[in-house]
Amino acid sequence: MKKSQIIVLTAGVALVAGLYTLPRVVVDNAEEGQSVENTAAAEAPVAEDMHNPNAKAVDYDQVAELRSKMEVEENKENFAIFADSIGSLYASSGKYDSAAYYYAQAADKVPAPARWEKAGNAYYEAYGFAMNQEKINTLAGKTQDYLNKVLEQHPERLDLKTKVAMTYVTSENPMQAIGMLREILEQDPQNGSALFNMGVLSMQSGQYKRAAERFEDLVSYHPEHIQGQFYLGVSYFESKQKNKAKKQFELVKSMTQDSMILNSVENYLDRI
């Protein structure tokens, strides 16, 4: 996590993690249970809250030229090439919803695992930025549709399974996400994405001691994981382990020059 995505956590600190909104569910205790298009892509799920506002502007003239060629192209392979090219223009501009729509056009016209994965990943990026519940649900479903096609042929792709799992966090059955993440960790106890997401979900549900355990595992296997290192410090702080928190935040300060993280670290250190 995506990370291009923002999650608001404790003390009003905004940091890169996974999703804007996570339900307050019991996570780790087994006992508790955009419109830029006005013609062919009118149905694409575009919205201002689903792209990176700091990304470069879209070259709409190039998009229009490619789209006009795509709309009259009869050869499936060429159609897919045009659609994929439009998707890449949007993706490079951080407009993941529009990118996903065109990647999906290419994948539907010429099905292939690589195209399914590209579409699914773009829908997942858009999902991470969506704020409206209807858009969240739609984009989660699209992510699942395309990434599950890849997983049917390549079940060993735990990175994609982790993304699918996280789309269930905002569903009516968020525990499905937890179950899938646990399955991933059974297969690969050192899986960084699964450990990180389990830790974040534990934090969101207020289980800071359990979150600390997850982040401890994460950084023991992946010591360079700066978000994990930071969230370990937050978990210590929130679980009243102030000495551990101070030591952890000092470690984070030595590991990064990211001003957002450093400012957040100082915020916590001032409170210890």
From TrEMBL:
Keywords: Repeat, TPR repeat
GO cellular component, one term: extracellular exosome
Keyword Nucleus (UniProt): no
PROSITE patterns associated with the record: TPR
Gene3D superfamilies reported in the protein's UniProt record: Tetratricopeptide repeat domain
Sequence ranges of the TPR repeats: 192-225
Name assigned to this protein: Tetratricopeptide repeat protein
